[in-house]
Amino acid sequence: MRVLFNSRAKHDYLADALTLLSGWTREGEQIRRTLVIDDTQHAALTERVKVVADALHLRPEISRRSDSTQIRVGHGNGEPLTEGEVLLAARIEDAYRAVTES
């Protein structure tokens, strides 16, 4: 049996998934997260995110500002947020927990 997803159901699914990602905020067609971590944790997080992002063929924006790391996921050019981008955000949360717990 085949299930067809219309764009409304897909949007609702993504919106529901985003509510499970605490700390992420939506800005149009991008999602953003600011993490307060030190330089060593930033380097470890960036390496882990790069591996996952490469596997998903995505390019998040990761920048360092004094004592925090800012991450943006999404195109921001009018393209809708995809399942892969929400998945990447979830994997970034996993990586964040891993680098801050060790």
From TrEMBL:
SUPFAM superfamilies: PCD-like. It comes from the Bacteria. Keywords: Lyase. It is an enzyme of class 4 (lyase). The keyword Thylakoid does not apply. It catalyses: (4aS,6R)-4a-hydroxy-L-erythro-5,6,7,8-tetrahydrobiopterin = (6R)-L-erythro-6,7-dihydrobiopterin + H2O. The keyword Protease does not apply. Its EC number is 4.2.1.96. Pfam families: Pterin_4a. Belongs to the pterin-4-alpha-carbinolamine dehydratase family. This is Putative pterin-4-alpha-carbinolamine dehydratase. It comes from Micromonospora tarensis. The lineage of its organism: Bacteria, Bacillati, Actinomycetota, Actinomycetes, Micromonosporales.
